[in-house]
């Protein structure tokens, strides 16, 4: 059984964005070895929760705690949370003009894993480029500059596989993807899953979860989790939408 200290425990979390209350008391546990799906309509607070978990300072926490490794990580900076093993895949990945992909990936990997781990870096990176069907010229490009939507999402998944975090938050990774890109990303997420890592997958739709098979499904409406269950809940939502839960 997983030590509770290794789980992320979100307790009665309240938050505002630009002065507007968005989260109204979220309670959620993320466990190692489990993939948790978070669904809900637009504006329900899903991306807010993802950003708060990662420490985005634009979001104001007004109450509650996020406990991990025996600490309230709300007091930790973004880089401290990343070093602890937290990773966020953005719904809309940011562009970094002037920073090429190789510099970005190698520097981030060194910070997260140390100089000793760098001896295997190039081999790991080459193998992952092949898995994600990305040409080596991809590494010469500036981060996300001029990337297609699919390339941006593949880049996020490449980072996930390379950095090997303890907990990964995938914020609408399926947004804007065609079915082939969706299957490729889902396949690689499934390959990465182990008893020693956990995932929070945020999505509107069933199609990604058809490939990822979540262990738990939670529905967020008006800033609060209103329904929880297994994969059968995803099928209910696909048929009935969210209005019956409001």
> Any idea of the CATH class?
Alpha Beta
CATH topology: Rossmann fold
Low-pLDDT runs of 5+ residues are: none
- Subunit organisation of the chains: single chain
Count the beta strands.
Answer: 12
Number of alpha- plus pi-helical segments: 8
Amount of beta strand:
25-35%
How many separate domains make up the residues? Answer: 1
How far is it from the N-terminal to the C-terminal residue, by CA?
Answer: 35 Å
CATH homologous superfamily label: P-loop containing nucleotide triphosphate hydrolases
- Give the structural class: alpha/beta
> Architecture in CATH?
3-Layer(aba) Sandwich
Shape: globular
The Rg value, from CA coordinates, equals 18 Å
What percentage of residues falls in helices of 4 or more residues?
25-40%
**What is the mean predicted local confidence, pLDDT?**
91
Task: Specify the biggest β-sheet.
Answer: 6 strands, mixed
Strand order of the largest sheet: 6-9-10-3-11-12
Topology:
Blueprint: E1 8-17, E2 20-30, E3 35-39, H1 46-54, E4 59-68, E5 71-72, H2 78-84, E6 86-89, E7 96-100, H3 101-113, H4 121-131, E8 142-143, H5 149-163, E9 167-171, H6 179-192, E10 198-202, H7 206-212, E11 216-221, E12 224-229, H8 231-240
Parallel strand pairs: 3-10, 3-11, 6-9, 9-10
Antiparallel strand pairs: 1-2, 1-4, 4-5, 7-8, 11-12
